[in-house]
Amino acid sequence: MSVALDFDDSFWINCPSDILILIFKSLDINSLINCMHVNKTWSDTVYYYCQHYNLWGKLLEKISHKNGLSYGLKSQLNDKHLFLSALNWLSIQNSHILPCHKYSIEKIRSMCMLKEMLFVTSNLSLNFIDIRQKKMIKRLEHMCLEYIETRSLIAELTLPNLDVIGYNALTLINKLHTNVCECTDVKKIILFDISLFKVHVDTCYVIDIKNVLWLYTAEECCWDTKVLARYYGNKESITLIHVYIDDVYVLLKTGDILKLDRKCKKFEKLLNLDIPHYLLDKELFMFHKYSLIVAVPSDKTYESYPSKEHNQSIFTCPGLTCLLEHGPVLITGFENGMVKIFVIDKLLKNEILPALQFRLDTYMSLQSYKIIAIEVYEDNDGHHMFLATDDNICELLM
Q: Are 271 and 257 in contact (CB under 8 A)?
């Protein structure tokens, strides 16, 4: 004789924590995250379970695209609070925005965040801003087109020397090389014959004028330098480099997306973008694996292009000037000072409605509102968003 047990919802609401933990042990990470939203009892039990088994890092990897690798470099929070912060991005539509601070810097070019330090390049200076103390602590007067700093290296793009024509100079500085020894010359290397570079976490990918892809990784007493692959097409046919976790993609001016085969040291054609060719002459931004946003003039409209690839989104974005892929969201800035925040998982389903949008002029009074760079820093107070215009860095607290 069989007995059918019919449990109603009250059983699961009042289910003892010991039984819930036994159930949680058999769940995957996605299901465990979903259990946090059932009720307070379940949420508290999941938190206890994750704390006991030190699962916060795995949860952060799951919820943050790119495995949370770059996400954690922009905060002093531990894995638990970084994960909770990433969860808050998924409900960003409920957030309140407060103006926090404004820094005046003329002719801003680029911006980079590392922990509590914001690095801002302008036409004639490199500026170091301590965001905790709300002040500029150091200012170097020299020409710098772009400055990126990670835990182990610094990449600085400058104008070439007078005897070098046509290409900017990329200087790589090894932050791990601190001791004076016979290998002092590895502290800094200067590359002149480059066409593109991409810094990802603690490595720098460089494409030279022969379409050879190099990898530079800083080590304690040397640079780990590798040739990864070469593209045997037309010179300067590669328009951008994109890195997703350990996968490296390059986009060609023909619309082909190539993926690096590290084992065979070659590029393999992954797909061709099914978009009008004239869009390939516009400014292109890649996010997630190989999804693409095309910046078009403000008088155009949003256009979405269907893709046969799973989890790929391709669309045009009128007036787009910059974007930041941060954890589970994509933050975009526009010519008119508009900021739009998209949930990446929804974008991959071609849902291009932003979770939150606002205008910078609502919170700050400026002469120019064109947003040219975005950075984010997280702490216990919330999300600190830094929006760079031509002459100001505006900090908003979300």
A: yes
Distance CA 202, CA 47 (A): 31
> Does residue 112 have a pLDDT over 50?
yes
Angle at 141 between CA 138 and CA 143, to 5 degrees: 125
Q: Are 269 and 258 in contact (CB under 8 A)?
A: yes
Whether 263 and 284 have beta carbons less than 8 Å apart is answered as no
Question: What integer best gives the mean pLDDT of the chain?
Answer: 87
Answer whether residue 181 shows pLDDT above 80.
no
Asked whether the beta carbons of 149 and 156 are under 8 A apart, the reply is: no
Among the listed residues 197, 192, 203, the one whose alpha carbon sits nearest the alpha carbon of residue 226: 203
Give a three-class secondary structure readout of the chain.
CCCCCCCCHHHHHCCCHHHHHHHHCCCCHHHHHHHCCCCHHHHHHHHHHHHHCCCHHHHHHHHCHHHHCCHHHHECCCHHHHHHHHHHHCCHHHCCCEEEEEEECCCEEEEEEECCEEEEEECCCEEEEECCCCEEEEEECCCCCEEEECCCEEEEEECCCCCCCCCCEEEEEECCCCCCCCCHHHHEEEECCEEEEEEECCEEEEEECCCEEEEEEEECCEEEEEEEEECCCCCCCEEEEEEECCEEEEEECCCEEEEEECCCCEEEEEEECCCCHHHHHCEEEEECCCEEEEEECCCCCCEEECCCCCCCCEEEEECEEEEEEECCEEEEEECCCEEEEEEHHHHCCCCCCCCEEEEHHHCCCCCCCCCCEEEEEEECCEEEEEEECCCEEEEEEC
Buried b (16+ CB within 10 A) or exposed e, 263-295: eeeebeeeeebebeeebbeeebbbbbbbbbbbb
Q: Which two tokens stand for residue 109?
A: 């070019």
Sheet containing 373-379, strands listed edge to edge, beginning at the edge strand earlier in sequence? 98-104, 392-397, 382-388, 373-379
Cα Rg for the chain, rounded, in angstroms? 23
pLDDT, tens only, 131-178: 988 888 888 887 788 999 999 999 999 876 655 556 678 999 999 987
- Cα separation of 223 and 208, whole Å? 17
Block residue for tokens 């470099």:
73
Q: Per-residue pLDDT averaged across 279-303, rounded?
A: 92
Count other C-beta atoms under 10 Å from residue 345's C-beta.
15
Residues facing 394 on adjacent strands: 102, 387
